Amino acid sequence: MLNLSTAVFRQLLAWPILLSGALWLALAYKLSFDEHLGAASLGAFLSYIVLGLSALLLRFGYVLQQRRQQGWLRQDSLRCTTTRAVISETVAAACSLLLLVVCSQLIVLTLNPRLNVQSESHHIVMSRVESDNSWAFTWDDSIPVGSKLCLTFDFENAPKGVIESSITVEQRSAPVTAGKIFYWTLSANDVRDRTITLEAPAEHNISLIRPIARLVIERPPISTLPRLLLNQLLFFFTVIALCLFIFRRLKVNGNLASMGALAISSLTNLKGSNLLPDVGALVASGLRFERTALTTNNIALFTWLAMGAILIYFSCKAPGANKK
Amino acid sequence: MTRNLPSAFVSLIIAFCVVSIANGNLRVVGQDAVDSFRCFNMYLDFNNASFEENYLMMGAAAEQIEYLSGDSDVREFSAYMAGYSTSAESHKRTGRDALHWAETGAEWLQSSVSTRNKPFTGLQLAAYIYADRILPHRSSRLVREQMLEVYAVWLASGGGSGSVNHGAATRYQDYLALDREGRDNYILGQLQQTWAPE
Predict the structure, then answer these.
(1) Residue B5: inside a domain, yes or no?
(2) Does A252 score more than 70 pLDDT?
(3) Does the first or last residue of chain A, that is N or C, have fewer Cβ atoms within 10 Å of its Cβ?
(4) Residue B188's domain spans which residues?
């Protein structure tokens, strides 16, 4: 089984692929942390790594298809061909992704890039006016607990002498002062519900300057990179399993299987759908990274991994998968 | 026929994803990388445009960057360069040209209100462009009202985060203590005090 894993791994990461991977990493680092033009954000770097992992998955589908066409090279050496072949292929694919992730971590660890100096990032949230003195805010993504809602209130029409008021959310209340930005720290319940309704005393007649608020979210520090990369790996574990299931069990072309696996896993980001566990934040990257990184809850994560394990189990049970 | 069913099913899912991406309901894995790359290119364009003093290009790139990354600082910088800094008399622009660019800069700042990632970005600059570059050449009531409104909003937003503008909250409270006419005069007085020298 080890021999087969090694063979698939070597087929996956042939020299040209390794060279391309190294070049891609260098480019990703440059594009993300360039002194003048880079975003200086881990999100930008992670987005290129996700693209690299996706490319490796497509390569995996191609290799599977090649192996099928070549008559499953070296598979005859296994005693229990179907089960062990699937496990070998899973191990080979996971190891190739792991290699990319480890190299990404090493390049950042070695070169220690400068990150954005601002410790917080700002994101826009639109409001819905419930009444003259209450406003509802909703957002799509899961955001970290402890994020703050930043609002600017207008006291222009408040009765003379009123320069302080209060904002209430259910049982909680906080003071708001004219000329000062108001910050509301979101509780675990607010974050889970993805909505919040703020209310001000009607007699104070204060209003929002603009019908928008900003979410102020703490930027993940560079020390969280290993965990972020591990999250990506865990996400792709189930994508690999999905690819193998489509390829082995449904007997679909390897290239199509890998594209299908990527498409199905992307459905975790589909708005308003609860078909798949909410694990899109595991591959949080790019511009949404600061908003959603490290927000996946454990239940969703374990459900996702369990799905991967079940898919591998069913792939192992595929009848006659070792036959040409 | 049944042999091809799984392939057709997978193809259908891929097609569904493509349609959902086009509708904006889905972000496919790796799509953020494409946006990051686009953003990098936009910064490159912005940089080149600022070297070449191509303000229209700067404004267009800033708009794209703001849309992609939520970074409003580039918009503020392009409005400053086009509408304030180079509209000064020391830059030897014709009066008409300077007024045109000042109005363009103010328009850029006003149009980005709903996409601005920070509530206070660009407000003070917009007020200064109105007061210092537009009003002396075009004494319209609308411009004056826009200037007063923008400055009042800037005061209400505390003048920005950090300690640089810590006096804005007190000034807003002083402003609120006045009647309608007094408030306008208060803002005009504040702007006259802080107008940057040419």
Answers:
(1) no
(2) yes
(3) C
(4) 30-194
Look at chain B and report how many structural domains it folds into: 1
ipTM for the assembly: 0.83
Q: Which of A186, A171, A135, A184 is nearest to A295 (CA)?
A: A186
Average pLDDT, chain A: 89
Residue-range domains of chain A with CATH: 2-117+222-316 (no CATH), 120-218 (2.60.120)
* Helix residue ranges per DSSP H, B24-163: 31-52, 55-69, 73-80, 95-111, 123-128, 141-156
N residues, chain A: 324
Segment A116-122 mean pLDDT? 81
Instruction: State whether residue A214 is helix, strand or coil.
Output: strand
Q: Helix, strand, coil: what percent of chain B each, to 5? A: 75, 0, 25
Classify residue B75: in a domain, yes or no.
yes
* Greatest CA separation for chain B: 82
Helix (H) or strand (E) holding A169: strand A164-169
Q: Which tokens hold the place of B183?
A: 């408030």
Specify if B188 maps to a domain. Answer: yes
Token pair listed for B158:
């505390």
Question: Which residue from A32, A124, A246 is facing B115, i.e. has the nearest CB?
Answer: A124
Pairing mode, strands A207-208 and A153-154: antiparallel
Q: How far is B82 from chain A (nearest CA, A)?
A: 21
Dist. CA A290–CA A184, nearest whole Å: 19
The vertex-A57 CA angle with A53 and A61, nearest 5°, equals 170
Range of weakest confidence among A113-127, A239-253, A286-300, B125-139: A113-127
Among A170, A192, A173, A194, which residue's Cα sits nearest to residue A184?
Answer: A173
3-state class (DSSP) for residue A38: coil
pTM value is 0.87
What pLDDT is attached to residue B119? Answer: 75
Q: Beta strands A172-177 and A153-154: pairing type?
A: unpaired
Q: Are A37 and B113 an interchain contact pair (Cβ–Cβ within 8 Å)? A: no
In this predicted model, what pLDDT tens digit does every residue of B46-62 receive, in sequence order?
999 999 989 999 999 99
**A321: pLDDT strictly greater than 50:** no
Output the CA torsion sign for B13, B15, B17, B23: negative
- Say whether residue B32 is in contact with chain A using an 8 A CB cutoff: yes
Interface of B with A in 73-112 (CB under 8 A): none
**Which of A66-75, A301-310, A312-321, B78-87 has the highest average model confidence (pLDDT)?**
A301-310
Cα–Cα distance, B27 to B50 (Å, whole number):
32
What amino acid is encoded at B181 in this protein?
Answer: E
Q: Least CA distance to A259: which residue of chain B?
A: B14
| Within a domain: B9 | no
What are the residues whose beta carbons fall under 8 Å from the beta carbon of B173, sequence distance 6 or more?
A163, A178, A179
Q: Identify the burial level of A113 via C-beta atoms within 10 angstroms of its C-beta, where 0-12 means exposed, 13-18 middle and 19 or more buried.
A: middle
- Measured CA to CA, the distance from residue A92 to residue A87 in angstroms comes to 9
Question: Which of B11, B17, B32 to mutate to probe the A interface, most A CBs <10 Å?
Answer: B32
